[in-house]
Fold this sequence. Notes:
single chain, alpha+beta, eight-stranded mixed sheet, about 20% helix, about 40% strand
Amino acid sequence: MLDQNVAREVLQEAVRTGGDFAEIFMEDRIDHxxxxxSHKLESATTSRTHGAGxxxxxxxxxxxxxxxxxxxxxxxxxxxxxxxxxxxxxxxVVAPFKPWDASRPEEILxxxxxxxxxxxxxxxxxxxxxxxxxxPEIVQVMANYGDxxxxxxxxxxxxxxxxxxxxxxxxxxxxxxxxxxENQSGSDAPGASMGFELFDxxxxxxxxxxxAAQQAVTMLHAPVCPAGxxxxxxxxGFGGVIFHEACGHSLEATSVGIGVSEFCGKLGQQIASPIxxxxxxxxxxxxxxxxxxxxEGTPSxxxxxxxxxxxxxxxxxxxxxxxxxxxxxxSSRRESYAYAPTSRMRSTFIAPGNDSxxxxxxxxxxxxxxxxxxxxxxxxxxxxxxxAVQEGYLVRDGKIVSPVxxxxxxxxxxxxxxxxxxxxxxxxxxxxMCGSKSGSVPTDVGQPMIRVSSITVGGR
Length: 460
């Protein structure tokens, strides 16, 4: 993708005015997307993203410029623009490159670009038909398929010169159930860092359609959740979005490095219940949040964030490392070349514990079982969050008695971590897209079933 001689010239130009570090990120990406609604294939698109960015450091100041002109002159102009904002730094010498290829072609069995569109459309039709078969109350189904193949090259003044290929495939199904006066929705959106073999090994399109539809129908007939402070059991899989949003973002150098996280300065301190261990892992093969190298060219790794309740590490990119004097953790990510990278989560989850799901429910008395979480919001500086429960059930005397809708969980991340009193044995990961300063990136969230001893539940 990038000639080494050109790369060296561009980096030299980038640090000409005193920058003490420079980096080039180049990408070429092909996306395929297809959407079906109410029996009709509404869209089928192919798009290409191509460009490069040049970043220059001077101490803890970072300048980023990008371009879709990846010719030598285009890259040199980009480097000049970045360098123009740097004055009076100590400068640096471009180290000899040590080229390597991080891609793992053996992980991809069927490249999506080699698959006919008709086969992709078949998966959408299968998902829609399965969803509609659940109940006549299903009035609309939306099924979407997406894949991408992204080739990147990353090099810097410290001698990094790495290429990588990233391949991802995903199915998304949404269903709406109606009784004529009101509607409820359900969804399922599995994906992986795999080719089209995803549908042979991990994802069943019909099953995804049924999951989405059954959730919609269940919630259509559910009464409104009562409000109050109560114990809440949060199921595995997408239940992990609570940790991701309410705590994970507060452990990224994006917020810690500039002093706006509730967990600043707490390394080595207890921030969670002793039964909680939390991990961010980019090395899980074929997982949605897997990366071979991060977007600064650092090899991916498994990072233990919290161990038995003790804060062990943050998620740290190169700039964050300078600000925090903390080792880099291979956590730097970006949506595309149009964004400067920053520390981001990969596959983030609470590790399995020793409790069975049955024990967690049976011993909680009266409370709420949050089977599936929805969207929400969080303030990383304070950890305050508000999340919708997409599918929930009332628990009475340790037994699940009825579905409820309209529930939300309200609290503060640091307080919730300390109130986790049960952790199940069955870890499951679910897929999502995470937005932050460097755009939207694919991440896994997950956990076994956990129980929070008390939390504010919004309802009626």
